[in-house]
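Reopening this ticket.

The earlier resolution said the output was attached, but the attachment link was broken on my side. Pasting everything inline this time so it's all in one place.
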Amino acid sequence: MKELRLRSISTIEAANAYAAEFAADFNARFGNEPRNPKDMHRPLANHENLDGAMCRKEFRTLSQALTLRYDKVLFILDPSPFAKSLAGKKARPEIVENKRLDEALAMVAEMQAGRELTRSQDNGYVKRGAK
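Inline output:
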């Protein structure tokens, strides 16, 4: 942040000490009173997960061999009719109807955890067998 650099603040402790002063100055310059003071926030429902909603999303292209690479890890999809229909296409949000990927990602993580993966010579992962 430019403000920290201009004040020669380079440690987390110094930034935390300056945070209250910065917030007060920022709010004094840019804060506005709401037209309606009523709090319109609602509590999160049990199925809502901010960790899944507040995340960086990246598109990947599924190869013809039903693989995709992310963060130096090779993911291999089971050759289901649905997966085969996506070969060569980019993963897009409209593929998941409810726009909530948390449950699907949790299922994939669980499936991946049950597989024995070892490094190959080209630094990719190779499936050695499903449990």
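Reporter confirms the inline version is readable. Confidence is low (pLDDT under 50) at residues 93-98. The chain is about 35% helix and 15% strand.
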